[in-house]
Structures are given as structure tokens and as C-alpha cells.
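Quick one, C-alpha cells below:
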């Protein structure tokens, strides 16, 4: 079919809708979206591929003959989040149905060139810092030439009787650049007719050749500017957008959808504010890659840690601009590809506590009456968990499952780093011998802080404050900890646990399941590690007396 489907834009998401509540499929704990395909367009919708937004992902669905409704998992168990995701997904579907009823629109020549310009800039920016080998761009240029003369992917076209040169050229362009066209049309929410698509593919070929030849020169060491880079106009709709887009608004939009931890929101938003203060420019749409590079260079010159600059400060800009680009607030992401080039030195790698340090901390903790100081070092030492994960434990997270005493680490208690961090971990015999179960008793709610004492205007989560207090306590013991000594006062337990697990002959996949590390390959992600297997492994990890 000649139709291409739009992604959900803000205008779509704000449409007033009468929506059913999210449902649950038998046998699944995830909420599900179910919406009937309108009867008046059911026939015309056959063959369409939908890319339904579900959180930060998409659900790809093909409308086949006889299909009556659209069903897809909302990929969340949280009712509030399910309702929000359903609202976005239904708005997308309603926009698709409306577009089918109205029919495809015509793309002007200027609009086609403008979209090709966006493709050109994307291809150039992604390869600016590291264009890769010359051969790769030479191959790309050869493919472009094949498409131009109707020779790219023509095997099936040549089998057709009566297929002429023009048809072969059209099929070649579609084969090579069709997916590129779909991506940029989706970003703009455009459904175009067949004539417009042919016009766009021609312009994309020209832009792709221009970008490929420029990247080829860069790969050879020639970074002189492209004299033809300014030939692409701005997409006409962009001129109708608000004259100014604030970077903080883009970041807030990303945060609302992605829902990171509050500490990440607070910290990364401050990075965006710092960038704006450095740049003295409010309009995110006017920010260039050169602006981001200047800020990066200034951070390096000020002695900033390369890892912090890359993984926190530049990361904040990347997610904000990427959200803005995907939601048609800005034309591109100027922070894409900008990073500090550095090599992690051996002397910079963090380490775990040695036996003497671990014994000193645990012996001191055993004398404490403050619950967080008393129990968190021991819990971290015997599970390899992050101190924040343990600091947010609730009484109801201490459970017995399959006859095994364990703790649940779950986002319901506060926050976790990622989906793989949610897990159930058996308690070490040393923890049980120390009387942890007597301490828990029949408590409900947080074990290591009083939620009722939290101030209404407090920004940092309570469990983060508890974790910081534990780290400060460890520093007061006079041990050689801290970054200068390559041992974090709390995170060093995590390093130590993995070291001891290897020494005890525990399989890496089992150790990863215990500490909440993601598998390093698809193959290792298959299967599960049982609670009994983890219990037996944890019992083999020694605890110094």
C-alpha cells in the first residue's frame, strides 16, 4: 500500500478520547490494550504495519485480512502507568484511522528536499567523530549508484516480464531507501501519496550520495566543510512551530515518559541548567553540535571526570534533545555522538574491600544500635546488592519462598537501576545467625527510615539519605576508602562479592542473578537461576569475623 503510518505526536496525544480501561490477558500480569478497528476503514487498513508507542518502545503489528481489533501488551503491571500508555497508544491509533479516512497527502518539492536534508544531517552527524573505514562509505556510494541506475536489489524485478528501466529504478530506490523514508515520515507524522513517495526517494538518494561522499572524505582525513550543505531548506511545518523551545521543557518531557528515579531527574536537570548557563542561549532549536562540543571541552578543561561527563552531563543533553527530535520539538539531536574520548586506566578501576577492611566494618556495625548502620553493611556484604537497594527494604519485602528466607528488591519499595535489578535474593546464614529476622519481626513499611518524618519539600529519596549516612559512617572508621583509594565506602561490597563468588567457583550467571547484573549475551539471558541455586551459592561466600 502507498500509506505510511505516523508516530504519536503531542497533538495526537492531547486529543480528547473515550477510552476503555486497560485489560489483563489471562495468564499474564501485564495490562493490555484492546481496540476495535473501525468498520468503515477495516478493508482499507489491511496490509498496514502499525508502530504503536508503548512507553519508550513500539509494538509492531500487521493488520491482516479478517482482523477485527488491535491487541498488544502495555508492558507494565502498574495501573496508573498502564492508563498513561493506553492514552498515548489510543491517540496514535485514532490518528491512523483518521489519516486512512482522509487519505494520503501530497508532499511538495520543497518538503521532499527538506526531509532529505534531515536525513543528510543525521548521516553526517552520526559519523562526524568517527567515520569508520573508507571501504564502508565506498560500498555505500556503490549501492547508491546501483540504485540510481536501477541495479540495486533488482533480482526479483528482472524476473518480472515487461519491467522497464523506470520500474527497476523505482524498486531499487525503494529497496535501498524505503526504510529511511519511513523513518523520517513517521517522525513528522506524514502519510503521503505514491507520487510524493517517489519524489522523496529521489531526493533521499541525492542527499545520501552527498553525505556518503562527505563521510568518505572524512574517513580519508579530509574534514573540510561541505560547500553544498546549506542547500537544504527547513521543513515548512517547522516554521509554524513556536519560535523558542526550552531545553528544560524537552528534558521534563523525557522525564515524564521515561520515569527515571527522582535523584536522576534532579541531577540531570541541573546539568541541563548548567549547559544553558554556559551557552547563554534559551532556544533549544538553535543549539548546534559545536555548542555541545564547546561545553564538553570546557568540562574537560575544568578537570571533570570523563565518565561523569559522558554518562551523566552529556547523557542529560542527549536524552532531552532525542526526545525533542522524536516528538517534533526540534529538528535533530545536536548532542548525538558527542563524548569525551578516554581510556580507563588500571589505577582508576574501583576495587572491593579486603578481608581486614571487611572485618573491621562488620565488627563495628555489629556494635551499633542504629538499624541502618547495624544491618546494611552485612546485607550488602552477603548479597552484593547496592546499598540503596537494601536501604529501601520494607518489612513486607522479607519473605519466605519455597521454604527459603529471602529479600525482594523491587521498584515498589522505591527505585531500582533497571528492570534486571528487580530480583529476590536469599539471606546468607550469617545474616540469619545475627538475628535479622528478629529485627524484622512483624514490621511493615521501610525498615531503615521513618517515612512519616520525611519533609514535604525534600528532594532526595529517604533511602538515598540513609545510604549516604552509612557511607559517612564507614569513612569515620578511618579506613582507606574513597575514590583516591579506589574503594567506595558502600559499593566496594559489590566488587568484593563478585570477587569472592569467583573464588568460590560460583558460575558467573548465578552471581549476576544475585547481584542484579544484566547478562552479557543473549545466550546467557535464556533460562532462570532458581532461588535454591542462589541460596547454595550465597552460603559459599565467606563472611569475615
Amino acid at each position: 500500500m502507498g500509506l505510511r503510518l505516523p508516530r504519536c505526536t503531542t497533538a495526537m496525544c492531547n486529543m480528547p478520547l473515550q477510552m476503555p480501561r486497560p485489560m489483563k490477558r489471562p495468564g499474564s500480569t501485564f495490562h493490555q490494550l484492546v481496540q476495535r478497528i473501525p468498520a468503515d476503514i477495516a478493508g482499507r487498513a489491511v496490509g498496514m504495519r502499525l508502530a504503536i508507542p508503548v512507553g519508550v518502545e513500539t509494538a509492531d503489528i500487521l493488520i491482516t485480512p479478517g482482523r477485527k481489533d488491535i491487541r498488544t501488551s502495555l508492558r507494565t503491571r502498574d495501573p496508573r502507568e498502564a492508563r498513561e500508555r493506553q492514552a498515548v497508544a489510543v491517540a496514535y491509533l485514532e490518528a491512523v484511522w483518521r489519516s486512512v479516512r482522509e487519505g494520503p497527502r501530497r508532499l511538495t518539492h520543497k518538503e521532499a528536499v527538506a526531509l532529505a536534508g534531515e536525513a543528510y544531517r543525521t548521516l553526517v552527524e552520526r559519523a562526524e567523530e568517527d567515520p569508520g573505514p573508507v571501504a564502508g562509505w565506498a560500498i555505500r556510494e556503490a549501492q547508491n549508484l546501483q540504485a540510481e541506475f536501477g541495479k540495486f536489489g533488482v533480482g526479483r524485478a528482472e524476473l518480472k516480464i515487461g519491467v522497464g528501466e523506470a520500474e527497476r529504478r523505482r524498486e531499487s530506490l525503494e529497496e535501498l531507501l524505503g526504510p529511511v523514508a519511513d523513518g523520517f515520515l513517521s517522525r513528522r507524522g506524514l502519510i503521503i501519496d505514491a507520487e510524493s513517495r517517489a519524489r522523496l526517494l529521489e531526493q533521499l538518494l541525492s542527499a545520501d550520495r552527498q553525505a556518503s561522499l562527505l563521510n568518505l572524505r572524512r574517513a580519508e582525513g579530509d574534514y573540510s566543510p561541505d560547500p553544498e550543505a546549506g542547500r537544504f531548506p527547513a521543513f515548512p511545518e517547522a516554521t509554524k512551530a513556536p519560535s523558542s523551545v526550552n531545553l528544560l521543557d524537552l528534558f521534563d518531557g523525557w522525564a515524564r515518559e521515561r520515569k527515571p528515579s527522582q535523584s536522576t531527574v534532579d541531577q540531570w536537570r541541573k546539568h541541563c541548567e548548567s549547559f544553558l548557563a554556559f551557552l547563554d542561549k534559551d532556544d533549544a532549536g538553535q543549539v548546534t553540535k559545536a555548542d555541545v562540543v564547546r561545553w564538553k571541552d570546557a568540562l574537560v578543561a575544568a578537570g571533570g571526570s570523563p565518565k561523569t561527563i559522558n554518562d551523566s552531563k552529556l547523557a542529560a543533553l542527549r536524552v532531552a534533545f532525542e526526545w525533542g527530535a522524536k516528538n517534533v520539538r526540534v529538528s535533530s539531536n545536536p548532542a548525538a555522538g558527542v563524548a569525551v574520548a578516554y581510556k580507563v586506566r588500571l589505577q582508576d578501576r574501583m576495587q572491593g574491600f579486603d578481608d581486614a577492611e571487611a572485618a573491621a566494618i562488620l565488627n563495628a556495625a555489629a556494635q551499633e544500635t542504629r538499624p541502618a548502620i547495624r544491618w546494611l553493611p552485612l546485607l550488602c556484604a552477603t548479597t552484593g546488592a547496592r546499598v540503596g537497594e537494601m536501604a529501601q527494604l520494607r518489612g513486607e519485602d522479607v519473605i519466605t519462598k519455597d521454604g527459603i528466607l529471602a529479600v525482594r528488591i523491587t521498584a515498589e519499595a522505591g527505585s531500582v537501576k533497571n528492570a534486571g535489578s528487580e530480583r529476590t535474593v536469599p539471606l546468607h546464614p550469617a545474616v540469619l545467625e545475627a538475628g535479622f529476622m528478629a529485627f524484622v519481626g512483624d514490621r511493615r513499611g521501610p525498615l531503615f527510615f521513618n517515612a512519616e518524618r520525611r519533609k514535604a519539600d525534600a528532594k532526595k529519596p529517604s533511602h538515598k539519605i540513609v545510604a549516604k549516612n552509612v557511607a559517612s559512617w564507614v569513612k569515620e572508621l578511618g579506613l582507606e576508602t574513597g575514590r583516591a583509594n579506589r574503594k567506595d565506602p558502600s559499593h566496594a561490597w559489590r566488587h568484593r562479592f563478585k570477587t569472592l563468588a569467583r573464588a568460590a567457583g560460583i558460575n558467573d550467571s548465578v552471581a549476576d542473578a544475585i547481584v542484579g547484573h544484566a547478562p552479557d549475551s543473549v545466550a546467557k539471558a535464556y533460562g532462570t537461576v532458581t532461588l535454591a541455586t542462589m541460596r547454595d551459592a550465597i552460603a559459599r561466600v565467606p563472611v569475615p569475623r
